[in-house]
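Running this now, will post back.
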Amino acid sequence: MKSFERRLNAIVNNSTMAIFLMDDRQHCIFMNHAAEELTGYRLEETLGRPLHDVVHHQRPDGSPYPLAECPIDQAFPERDRMQGEEVFVHKDGHFYPVAFTASPILGDDGLPVGTIIEARDLTAEKARESALKESESRFRNMADHSPVMMWVTDPDGYCIHLNARWYEFTGQAPGTGEGYGWLDAVHPDDRLLAEQAFVAANAARRDYRVDFRLRRADGMYRWTIDAAAARFDQDGRYLGYVGSVIDIDERREAEDKLALSEEQLRLATEVGEIGQWDVDQATGSMFWPPRVKAMFGISPHVPVTLEDFHNGVHPDDREKTRAAYEAASDPDRRALYDVEYRTVGKEDGIIRWVAAKGRGLFNADGVCFRVIGTAIDITARKADEARLRELNERLEQEVTARIAERNRVWEMSRDLFAIMGFDGHLKAINPAWEVTLGRDVEALLALSFRDQVHPDDHSAVESMMEQLLRGETVERFEDRLRHADGSWRWISWTLVPEGDVFYAVGRDVTPEKAAAAELEHAQEALRQSQKMEAMGQLTGGVAHDFNNLLTPIVGSLDLLQRKGLGGEREQRLIEGAIQSAERARTLVQRLLAFARRQPLQPTAVDVGQLVNGMADLLASTTGPQVRVVVDAADGLPPANADPNQLEMALLNLGVNARDAMPKGGTLKIITTREVVDSETGPLQAGQYVKLSVADTGVGMDDATRARAIEPFFSTKGIGKGTGLGLSMAHGLAAQLGGALIIQSEQGVGTNVDLWLPVSGTSASSGEVYDVGAMIGDARGIALLVDDEQAVRASTADMLAEFGFQVQEATSGETALALVADGLMPDLLVTDHLMPGMTGVELAQTLRETFPQLPVLIVSGYAEVEGIAPSLPRLAKPFKRAELAASLAVLMARTEP
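Update: finished.
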């Protein structure tokens, strides 16, 4: 029995699991070596003590740990075996997590007599979990800043992460691509292939790569490479995939073009039985394809050298071949390598005739570094010549050679060769016709030449025929011939009359025509863009100066009106002047909107009120021949829009409608409230205000309607339109979360719907604010900086009325000098664009000394580039109430 107990104790003490034995009072009666190492206590120190007192003196935060909350003690005697995690305290005072199992020990009577507790230190596991979470966090951060699209899946194949670049590229809402939602952005024709490739790879847990087309945010599809690697943890458990998606659309297009070009070259050389060769002068290495090796009786797999070439040439032909090669590689001569020679087969000893042509390639120093060329096996031709020479002597031999050469050119040329009668029928044509027009030779010969020519070119063909009948040669004559697929090919002709026929040589110039047309279109678009940019810069500059002129006018008139100076007549004159100044301010804002010199500033807009306010302007713009009808529905909710940009869009749509009705007609502008229950085309589900502009004009065909919103696309002719009206309106609607939809029918008219989302706030009521209530009792020194004296004087009067002590400066540098002399401003009001230092630069410099200094940027130019969003801005011109409102907001921000 004692031997058994010793063995049992040896087993327990050698276990890596900490083991505790408790009696029926939950006092410790035994702990193994692993338990001593785990707790820091020796067995003698714990005997007769509750385990709770040893390892649970207090919680990690220092509060007491009641026995009633200890799950280990609860395992006996009321409960059965229990598992869980606990936090122990070591003898040296540090805390560590453990996993435990506590089981009652039953006596012979079946009643519990004690507890056995097993515990395992979880410190290393918890550290690994924490490190894994940190690693995953770093990975997600790195992935979201990666320039390529990245994704991660779980072991079941579900996508658990897509980086920011994926959602930016596809336009999917963040999170919608997870699971199998990423497939929604894949081209429908590629979706099954992409899914099957992934599922198969995931089942085999192997790396994979697949190409598919992915929808970009603008709706276009681009070819991409999706490559991924399987992930495994340190124990070899499969975790899923991590992969990337790269846009290869341009590379794939280039590869397709290269492959087509190489295939065309291969077919040309195969049809012509032409071999190519290339000699590296520096290394003496030589490239010979199998066709050229065959001309020297060498097997395709045998490597060749320049020595093989020299040795392979017939001894009688070596000298002329060498001389021709030296002339081609000589920097001073650079002759065409054009020689015919015999070869003696290295492996079969057969003598063959070869016709070789080539040229040397020279670097900038005039050194020949390569000689490249072609070789044709002319053994058969030479044999024919020999037979002809035997039959018909020299003359017949030469005639036969010329005929053979002509036939080869006739057969192999890519140009169109033809013999045609003046009756309009082809007498003979070469095979290039079949390649160019997609019809066989017999079918082309059966057609009248006029039947193949584009109807618009018939009169030009008749004039060309008259020239030929007069015996004149016609060069660079162009017309269009019908291809078998129904398209038209542009052909440039040289035609020579001879007797009752004429000879024609034509070349397909369709690609050149298309390239020229595309270049012309691009140049016109560039001209229009440059014109718009110049007009924008001019308009923006004029508006800036105009705002500076209006600021003292508006401020002074506002002061006169508030003071109630003069009698009733004078007040009417002041009111009229104020209205004119407001109209001038509105005009400047529209000029800036036209010049695109202000950012989009969405707000709640009463579209019906805006349309009614634009009615007179639209009527005057469209002219007396166009009847303008406005139908604004009552009770419309406010729309989320930029009123200035919306006015410009409505004006552009009105001008387009007017141009579509050259003989007059009706222009209807209708506003309605619409509800979209589910996603419909470009519209998301939600509430909208629809602004419809309909005309009774000429309408559009399908091709024009498809391109109507393209920038610079216009049907008005050169110089009559920029082609930007519809594209600007479309961009405005899309940026606001709406859409622009065009319906048109030729001869009926066009309807353009501008869908604007309903705003969550009410439209501005235009109420007049109480200046005193807005800024309270203003105190302190206001530093006013503006390079315009009149603007500065008007603004200084307003600030003085608010209770500020005003210190004026003509520039940022002057203001800094005042501060350097001891001025301590409580408020900075500064113009933005001034000679030298800008207002923003002045504000940043002063805030280095006065971090809490309130700053208001005042500018007559709506361009806000360089102005941080955190800096409050006030546009010129402005009234006292508008200045007070801006100061009230500014003071509220700086209150402690």
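Residues 649 and 698 are 21 Å apart (CA to CA). More later if anyone needs it.
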